[in-house]
Amino acid sequence: MVADQIPPADERPHRPGAGRHWEESWYLDFVAGDGRLAGYVKLTLRPGEGTAWFWAGMVGGGPTLVTVRDHEVPMPTGRGLEVRASGLWTELVCETPLDHWSVGLEAFGVALDDPLEAWGRERGDPWALGLDVEWEATAPCVAWPGPERGYWQGCNVHGDVLVGAERFSLDGSGTRIHLWGDRSAAEPSGWAAGRLDDGTVFSSTDVVVACDEAGRMRSLAFAAGEEEVTGVAVSQAPVLLPGAGRLARAVCRYETPGGRNGHGWAEWFVPAGLSAPP
After folding, report:
1. In terms of CB atoms within 10 Å, which end of the chain has fewer, N or C?
2. Tell me, what's the pLDDT at 2?
3. Can you give the residue range of the structural domain that contains 72?
4. Distances, alpha carbon 5 to alpha carbons 10, 27, 155, in Å
5. Is residue 5 part of a domain?
6. Would you say residue 4 lies in a domain?
7. Is residue 277 part of a domain?
8. What pLDDT was estimated at residue 277?
């Protein structure tokens, strides 16, 4: 799939494959213009299991991390992407194919002082999390550089964010990713995406990641076009995949040898039984 072959119909859910591990996901993230507030949502349909997964994370809104992870969400009905579960309502809406998406969210997550608790018992104070946010394209959709079918797109992001009793007016940048196919990953893998201060957007799955002994992402390096980019994790938002492994996620500050800077999100998945990179 190349960029000019991505049809608008690909924004909608696809016919499921036969494998148990076939899944389809819609992922949208953001970082505020000053880098102080960042978040993401991800809705994953797993028809082989008859269920959906929903994740959301927020950093910079007060608690170190507010996280939502529900792996028993009823599948959406109809052709839309609206799901409801205990303490959760969300709807991902394609306003204009390949150009404009919106996300509404009303949920109760868990506020964690130590983000690594997300890999443990996930115990913390209940915390309200809400979004009324728009993602508007700054460039065409681009074929995803990894093995899955799909695409990514750099966006301007704006709207309202609720974290507990605090309301934030968001004006920043972000990435949206839509993938589908078999996801029975057995090897470590990851990606990085974001935007530099000159407006350059990028996404890469060819990343070299360094983690600490606990598995937290610390730094990474990759190529964005013809330029090398290095990243330093500034806020952690890990996710536990019970029985499958650990997903290190972080907001990163990026830098190029030419002195350009930017922000974005990155993640690194380590299957169960394997060690994180040093």
Report:
1. C
2. 43
3. 19-271
4. 10, 21, 20
5. no
6. no
7. no
8. 65
